[in-house]
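Dock iron/sulfur cluster; give full complex structure.
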Amino acid sequence: MEKSRRVARLKEKYNKCLECEVLVKNRTNIVFGVGDPDTCKVVIIGEAPGMNEDIKMEPFVGRSGQILDSLLADIGLKREGVYITNTILCRPPNNRNPNRGELNNCRKRLDMQIKLLDPRVVITLGNFASRYMLDTNDGITEIHGKAHEVNGVKIVPMFHPAVLLYSGNNPEKRKELLDDFMVVKGILSDR
Ligand code: SF4
């Protein structure tokens, strides 16, 4: 069976998930992920859906999403060429961080999604997703741009694209972000 059909089955399984009581009440939609499972070589993991993502059912929309798209383009990738999801699938109230119980509830889905997609590399975007996926207390400033191997999966943690907005589109900050994406480009070109 192709990856896309297996991922579609997983999505169907979580389509009406009721595991996290608070999130179920707060969400409009479940934001499972976007991308072509059959062709993607990169999986991107963010923290959780925000207000726009919850409505549009797509991770990383809005200005952060535009920055992400432009950084991907700089290493020769399009949004359609990667698969994007989050540590949890449902929007937390007031955009708070997911709590431990919610992360645990959604972890089986995330691990299965990564396993089915079988990417060459996983990018974790932002402090929260990076620390969670690498199971570390180190901050993103210390760990970004370095490839880590976790249970056979290559993970490159990166700053959240929104840092560029907070920096007033500072060219040096953009270069710092792009340098991390170049690490991914190097992994993809490494045979
Ligand atoms: S966050 Fe995950 S586990 Fe929790 S309700 Fe949503 S889909 Fe289910």
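Observed: The pocket of iron/sulfur cluster is lined by residues 14, 17, 19-20, 23-24, 30, 88-90, 102, 105-106 (CB under 6 Å).
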